[in-house]
Design brief:
The complex is a heterodimer of chains A (113) and B (113). Chain A has 113 residues and is an all-beta fold. Chain A has strands at 4-7, 10-14, 19-25, 29-37, 43-50, 55-58, 61-66, 71-76, 85-93, 102-103, 107-112. Classes of the chains: A mainly beta (113), B mainly beta (113). The interface between A and B is medium-sized, with 27 and 31 residues.
Chain lengths: 113, 113
């Protein structure tokens, strides 16, 4: 079953603009992670935020986590055409296996030059 | 260079055939995973293994089998019992501490002909 759901399903922006993607989940988590997937390729780990953290930065990425609303957002600032990819959130569920992530369906981001 | 290697990149299966997808890692990771991805969809967990000689069913294990005889290897067999096997298959590994995230292979695209 899908624990995380990304929103929107697709997002198209111009180069230089910021892109915001959201993830909602259903049950309490240990941490939430964001991954990127270029078309036809494997996923690449971007950033992890723990349940006791509210915000985290990595380069042009900013992730927030609101455990009271069971939601997270990924902000990509000053987007580039090379940022075009699908972005997935993944959750590590409290009480679940420490070795198992559940992924959402992803947001397809298109950055137009 | 450390990483995960999936082979083959493309695989064609005839009706009624079993096929095996290879996944090898040299990251010294304890945990390995198989996910299935259908077009426009998220990742669904097929099987996972936390240690050698042990593995657990994921959400969609029917029609699939795995083995974990070596730490480095986690092959997936798609059996004839899997009625809709056409999909993109992704293998991943983890150091056992979920806070490090997953490392993914580049995937195998399986098509039934």
């Amino acid at each position: 079953s899908q624990q995380g759901e990304e929103d929107p399903q697709a997002l198209s922006i111009q180069e230089g603009e910021n892109a915001t993607m959201n993830c909602s989940y259903k049950t309490s988590i240990n941490n939430l992670q964001w991954y990127r997937q270029n078309s036809g390729r494997g996923l690449v780990h971007l950033i992890l935020i723990r349940s006791n953290e509210r915000e985290k930065h990595s380069g042009r990425l900013r992730v927030t986590l609101d455990t009271s609303k069971k939601s997270s957002s990924l902000l990509i600032t000053a987007s580039r055409a090379a940022d075009t990819a699908s972005y997935f959130c993944a959750t590590d569920i409290i009480g679940g296996s420490n070795y198992k992530l559940t992924f959402g369906k992803g947001t397809l981001l298109t950055v137009n030059p | 260079d450390g990483g995960i290697t999936q082979s083959p990149k493309y695989l064609f299966r005839k009706e009624g055939q079993n096929v095996t997808l290879s996944c090898e890692q040299n990251l010294n990771h304890d945990a390995m995973y198989w996910y299935r991805q259908d077009p426009g969809q998220g990742l669904r967990l097929i099987y996972y293994s936390q240690i050698v000689n042990d593995f657990q069913k994921g959400d969609i294990a029917e029609g699939y089998s795995v083995s974990r005889e070596k730490k480095e290897s986690f092959p997936l067999t798609v059996t004839s019992a899997q009625k809709n096997p056409t999909a993109f298959y992704l293998c991943a590994s983890s150091g056992g501490r979920i806070s490090y995230g997953y490392t993914f292979g580049s995937g195998t695209r399986l098509t039934v002909v």
